Amino acid sequence: MAPSLPYHHGMDARDAEYTEARTDLFAEMLRASAFDMADELRHEFVVATVKDLTPRYTTLGDHLWRQLIGNGMRATYADATLAVAARHGRGEESGEARM
Predict the structure, then answer these.
(1) How far apart are alpha carbons 3 and 25 in whole angstroms?
(2) Does residue 46 contact residue 25 with C-beta atoms inside 8 Å?
(3) Cα separation, 27 vs 21, whole angstroms
(4) 38 — phi, psi (to 5°)?
(5) What is the pTM of this model?
(6) Contact between residue 65 and residue 50 where contact means Cβ atoms under 8 Å apart
(7) At 3, is the pLDDT very low, low, confident or very high (cuts 50, 70, 90)?
(8) What is the average per-residue pLDDT within 24-45?
(9) d(Cα 99, Cα 89) in Å, to the nearest integer?
(10) Alpha helices, H only, the chain
(11) Residue 11, SS3 per DSSP
(12) Which helix (H) or strand (E) holds 7?
């Protein structure tokens, strides 16, 4: 059995990193008003943003990057607003509290 990654607030490091990457994606989507874009433009924006995030989150594999793109396409404005607000409430603005 492979060794598990360190835990952070009840999550393993990969789960925590995925959650941070998703929140970063949502924050970028809010800044760019991606929720008002046509589906094709939104998809292009999400893919480009996820590509820009890849160097910051090194433990995420290809399947999680694809999952993140899917989350970006399915997310609503409310989902993004709540995720970003939760980060601000925890004092994790701009990755300040990253492991």
Answers:
(1) 29
(2) yes
(3) 10
(4) -65, 155
(5) 0.78
(6) yes
(7) very low
(8) 96
(9) 17
(10) 13-31, 39-53, 62-74, 77-89
(11) strand
(12) strand 7-8
Least confident interval from 67-71, 85-89, 93-97:
93-97
CA distances from 9 to 1, 16, 21, 92 (A): 23, 8, 16, 14
Write out the two tokens for 42: 């939104």
Mean pLDDT of 34-57: 96
Q: Collapsing DSSP states into helix, strand and coil, what is residue 8?
A: strand
The terminus-to-terminus CA distance of the chain in angstroms comes to: 24
Both tokens assigned to 17: 């990193």
DSSP 90: T
CB 6 within 8 A of CB 12: yes
Return the bridge partners of 7, or none: 12
Q: What is the pLDDT of residue 9?
A: 55
The pairing of strands 7-8 and 11-12 is antiparallel
Beta bridge partners of 12: 7
Token couple for 60:
């995420």
